[in-house]
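Regression report. Comparing outputs from two consecutive submissions.

Submission 1:
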Amino acid sequence: MHNTICIREVFYFMISLQIKVTKQIMNALLASECFDAFLLEEAAVATFNTFHIDGHIVEDFYTADERSEHPCEFSLWRDIRPFCFQLIKGKKTPVSFKVVLHAPDALVEKIAADPECGVAANLIRALALNIRYDNGHVACVTGCAYSTFLIDKSAEKLWDAYVRRMFSGLNIDYE
């Protein structure tokens, strides 16, 4: 007989930023190290085929020692970025693409430690950034997943503010 504990994720989407110049976000995402510390949940690129990348680590691939070096559930964007770059680069733009990134643990802890945040880091399952390209436009949608239902929205507001500052610092224009 097995006992199963089910932790429900409660996921909230906060803001949608429309990127004014596609090349700005593409360069930051694919041709620089700006997002390399983020974790990849999933990516999908549609060119002549549709390529899906599941960012979940396959534990059986690693030895126990190697696994201890990669304690995260997801791959680092740094490790997957070259593959996505190869799929997207070329003379023709992709039909579409989607990248779902999660903030690294250190950033989640930093946001939770902010005096304006009323949510403990252990209750934040993910701070997500969904980047979608379709019909020549890029939209970025933030999200926050909790391990339980919370009324406090301070972590979401701080995450939104962080993403806006990050984009401004990278000279990514949005509306």
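Submission 2:
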Amino acid sequence: MKKQHSPEQIVKKLQEADRLRGSGMTVPDACRQLEIAPATYHQWRKKYRGLDVPQAKKLKELEKENQRLKEMVAEMALDNRILKAAAEGNL
């Protein structure tokens, strides 16, 4: 079963992984200790590198808002097509 991590948890785990790696531990060993897959570690690092907890929260909020806006645009485009077809008498 997949485990969902909050942005705060992700940032904290990345900071802990960096601390472990700084002490000489390899990536797979650090991931094993943090109970995450190495692939997950690399994905998180690519996305959240250099962020602190408030910035990670803001990023997550912006991603949700962006998704909501994309859905609104898609619905409006569909409504526009329906109205155009109705105006042309194709319905």
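Expected: both submissions complete independently.
Actual: both completed, but the second showed a warning that disappeared on reload.
Relevant detail on submission 2: The CA atoms of residues 85 and 91 lie 7 Å apart.
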